[in-house]
TrEMBL record:
Domain named Transcription regulator TrmB N-terminal: residues: 6-73
Domain of life: Bacteria
Species this chain originates from: Candidatus Giovannonibacteria bacterium RIFCSPHIGHO2_12_FULL_43_15
InterPro entries: TrmB-like, Tscrpt_reg_TrmB_N, WH-like_DNA-bd_sf, WH_DNA-bd_sf
Protein name: Transcription regulator TrmB N-terminal domain-containing protein
Xref: SUPFAM superfamilies: Winged helix' DNA-binding domain
Pfam family, one: TrmB
């Protein structure tokens, strides 16, 4: 009997080994099984009683010796049905507990989580996070005039393509105006931008989902991701107000 298949049905590794042995060898005592199976005596008793509890084996005495045998294979169906019922009961219990658990989580874990990154490789991880950890599928950007100079145009071209492939839209408040070629590129990459004339900021701000990334391109390159809904919502509101005036 394939033990891996039995494990997929919900048996532990030890239970699968013991069940397979009993199915193929018939009624056996612990003494007989211990010689053939890679399970220690104390553990084997627990394994066999686990099978009995699941209804897949029976314990009985024969000539004053405790032996075990498997029940009819159809019992597996009843075991699985019972497992499904227990799973549904656990799901219902989890749903019932969720409001209380969520309330306590919010109370005790509402402090902003701050992640720090250094150097170009660290900054690349921030940009990667705007893609892989962004269920909102939108990034709002206050662009720095130093970004291309620091990270390179080729990096941003590749980043823009990958971001668009993940169906993430981007709106950018930029210090530079757009050329016709740049407008076509933006459209292809699900990007929209407006110019804030004379905007000169040495750090970029990216707002996405419940996070805010701040990337400083001046001198020592560093970045942070602040994971906090209130912070993200505040900066998102500021972005929208400015965006609507441009």
């Amino acid at each position: 009997m394939n033990e891996e298949t039995l494990k997929k049905l919900g048996l532990s590794e030890g239970e699968a080994v013991a069940y397979s042995y009993l199915l193929e060898n018939g009624e056996s005592s612990v003494g007989q099984m211990i010689k053939k199976l890679p399970i220690k005596r104390g553990n084997l008793y627990n394994v066999l009683r686990g099978l009995v509890f699941k209804g897949l084996a029976e314990e009985f005495k024969k000539n004053k010796v405790v032996e075990f045998r498997v029940t009819h294979p159809s019992q597996i169906k009843y075991f699985l049905a019972k497992s499904e019922d227990e799973l549904e009961a656990r799901k219902k219990l989890a749903n019932d507990l969720m409001p209380e658990m969520t309330s306590k989580y919010t109370l005790n874990y509402s402090k902003p989580a701050v992640h720090y990154f250094e150097g170009k490789e660290g900054i690349k991880k921030i940009y990667e996070n705007t893609i892989i950890s962004n269920p909102s599928k939108e990034v709002l950007v206050f662009r720095s005039h130093l970004d291309d100079k620091t990270m390179g145009i080729k990096f941003f071209q590749n980043y823009g393509k990958i971001r668009a492939e993940h169906e993430i839209k981007t709106r950018i408040i930029s210090p530079t105006s757009q050329t016709d070629e740049k407008k076509k590129e933006d459209m292809a990459l699900k990007r929209e931008r407006k110019q804030w004339e004379n905007l000169q900021i040495p750090a970029e701000i990216d707002i996405y989902d419940n996070k805010v990334a701040i990337i400083s391109f001046e001198n020592h390159i560093v970045g942070t991701i602040i994971e906090n809904k209130a912070t993200a919502d505040t900066l998102r509101e500021i972005f929208e107000k400015i965006w609507n005036t441009l």
